[in-house]
Amino acid sequence: MIETEVMDNIIELKHLTRKFGDLIAVSDLSLEIKRKEIFGLLGPNGAGKTTTISMICGMLEPTEGSISFKGFGGKEPKSLIGYCPQENIFYPKLTCMEQLVFMGQMFGVNKITCLERAGQLLTLLGLSDKAEEMAVNLSGGMKRRLNICLALIHDPEILVLDEPEAGLDPQSRILVRDFIRRFGESKTVILTTHNMDEADRMAHRIAIIDYGKLLLLDTPHNLKRTIGEGDMLEIVPENSSGNDVTGFIDQVSALVPQINNNPHTLLFRHPDMLEIMPSIKRIADEMGFKIAEFKLRQNTLEDVFIHLTGRNLRP
Fold first, then answer.
1. Level-2 CATH architecture, domain 231-298
2. Into which CATH architecture does domain 9-224 fall?
3. φ, ψ (nearest 5 deg) of residue 199
4. What does the CA dihedral 51, 57, 58, 63 come to, rounded to 10 degrees?
5. Mean pLDDT, the chain, integer
6. pTM for this structure?
7. Mind listing the pLDDT tens digit for each residue in 8-42?
């Protein structure tokens, strides 16, 4: 959990709606994003995350509602934002350094400053030895890190990252997370993801959205407290089909109710789960119910999503 101090708003979304024909991708979304905040926009694929940030970045016009940037005296919003899209984008015949210098000059930054910033960014993201290599020849994790460098070459106030850990190897994932945390100490980061663990580890506050609507907005700690006290018991059956699962749930529900409707992973919560676990295991043994995994854990953000929607997170 990361606690955040009280800060001024840098972005305000009011009643934001975006329609594509009859499809409502974002519906009456209102929220505020603060300065020096890592803000998580969390939800499954198709929830409206990318549409929302596309409107914030000025790539899509809202159908209804407004977006305002605070404290910049009418400065063009696009110059305030560095955007790293979900898909890596490169010029096929440029080296890593050439990519960065070209992108910086497109934002009006002079070449000397571009070269200096490019060197700093490549070093920070572990790519200094790849400066003269063609970007298309990099590994997937390196390409992702270079795309973050491209988003930052014009020194924006706001960094928008759409699924920043997509395609990253474990080493790159740690490097990117550390970089985002450092960047968030002085600038604002908007992080969109369907990876709830990623958001929990990094964000000061999280907005959970689904089907284009805001479900909850708070710190990770407070979000997890909304679903009650007690530990979670997670049971994965060896065979999730047939009547065995239903019979087992019926028996266990006399002790503690199931809190999801997914037969592949059964979730139960109780304030005294440690005391109840032996009884649950005994029920399974008496029924001959085979369990592949039997795990006690604390609440997660995915549990919050299940509590709000009654279903597991869509991949």
1. 2-Layer Sandwich (3.30)
2. 3-Layer(aba) Sandwich (3.40)
3. -65, -40
4. 30
5. 89
6. 0.83
7. 899 999 999 999 999 999 999 999 999 999 999 99
